[in-house]
Amino acid sequence: MDAILKHPLKLRCVACHAEYDPLEVRYRCDCGDLLDVVHDLDALRTLDLRALWDQRWGSRRFPDDSGVWRYRELILPVEESRIVSRMEGNTRLYPAGKAGDYAGIEHLLLKHEGENPTASFKDRGMTCGITAARLMGATKVACASTGNTSASMASYASVAGMEGIIFIPEGKIAYGKLSQALAYGGKTLQIEGDFDVAMELVQEVCAKLDIYLLNSINPFRIEGQKAIAFELLQQLDWQPPDWIVLPGGNLGNNSAIAKGLAELYDLGIVRKKPRLAVIQAEGANPLYRMWANKTPFEAVREADTIATAIKIGNPVSWQKSLRGLEWSNGVVEQVTEQEIMDAKAWVDASGIGAEPASCCSIAGAKKLREQGVIAAGDRVVGILTGHLLKDPDAVVDYHTDNLGNRHIASTFANRPIQIPATLEAVEKALGA
């Protein structure tokens, strides 16, 4: 590994701090806890990373044109020929518009990770994870998924010439995501049980059959997702916001963002810690329960929410998530199904659009503003994790008042109007 890395790396246990060679295929410490990729920050202090990254901004040259590999010194400092990329990242930062008015937050920006190649933030982690798989000689990769991970892994595995094997909960995945996994050539196994059952099974299969695992338990996945924080701060001219609000499912994303922020802070690239707010759906809320009740972590059995991307009751990254929340003086909140879909209606009506899980960010920000946790003058960035068309059924069902089975009222519905094919009927419908 040292021959192809430009800076040394280590794998280090988050609990006992045991260290391992990064070339060794492992996802957990011998003690059972998760691993971090540890960069030599002292070596990186000799570089003017901010100036280097700003110089690469807007480049059309590979790999600087990637919104992940632009920051490779603090992601995976690998030889450029080893990188598997689809020019991921480079996602836009939008004024929230109507969604900001709805949340009651004047300075609300939305970073839309649904603008990645496979339309979710997972591409940032997957480009790094697949590149690590290539370094380790893997020919097969696998993941358990509620949808976005499977779409991303199938795509990147195909680009890298690897076989992608996907474990999904039977009947519990949005077709917008399942269609991607099938289209990109992933070998898709629909299992009986929910995501947590799939996650247990894929770990067992990968260990027995020597398949490289690419869920967020993989420490290199987390490294790629840190680039959300790097790019966000670069877009803000390295001036951190007061808050970063994002959904919480398997909890790898907020763990990644917190890790990236902490590294930038330690390096002196930023001098302020943004506070993180992790928002969970009420039906899949183990981190919230732990946080609010001050009790030990306990998985939620048979988690359920319309926000399928975060329908996870036993998130593997909860310890890393807590570490990031403590570092940033962050908070955890939960939102109802109604709050998720109403917030989504306003994000969509702002001309931006996102899948239901993404809109936990806005629903949660609104709730925290009403509680006074987020102040009126705070600068807030909400992370939108996936594209509107990842779950089109949820959109249509909301606007046609077909979510009664979930006890969700179509409060802000934009219903289609059925009319005869006549000029008079059009005039009447338009109020002309």
Could you describe the 3D structure shown?
The protein has 432 residues and is an alpha/beta fold. It has a domain at 93-118 and 221-406: Rossmann fold. The protein is 37% helix and 15% strand. It contains 16 helices and 13 strands. Helix 8 (219-225) packs across helix 10 (252-266) and helix 13 (337-349) packs across helix 14 (360-371).
Task: Give a summary of the structure in a few sentences.
37% of the residues lie in helices and 15% in strands. It is of the alpha/beta class and 432 residues long. The chain has a domain at 93-118 and 221-406: Rossmann fold (3-Layer(aba) Sandwich), CATH 3.40.50.
CATH topology category name of one domain = Rossmann fold
Q: How is the largest sheet built, in terms of strand order? A: 4-5-13-10-11-12
Q: Return the structural class.
A: alpha/beta
- Helices and strands, in order, run as EEEHHEHEHEHEHEHEHHEHEHHEHHEHH
In the CATH scheme, the class of one domain would be Alpha Beta
Unreliable stretches (pLDDT < 50, length at least 5) are: none
CATH architecture descriptor name of one domain: 3-Layer(aba) Sandwich
How big a fraction of the residues is strand?
Answer: 5-15%
Question: How would you state the average pLDDT, rounded?
Answer: 95
The number of strands is 13
Number of helices, counting only DSSP H or I runs of 4 residues or more: 16
Radius of gyration: 21 Å
Helix content: 25-40%
Biggest pleated-sheet summary: 6 strands, mixed
Shape: globular
* Beginning-to-end CA distance, first to last residue: 70 Å
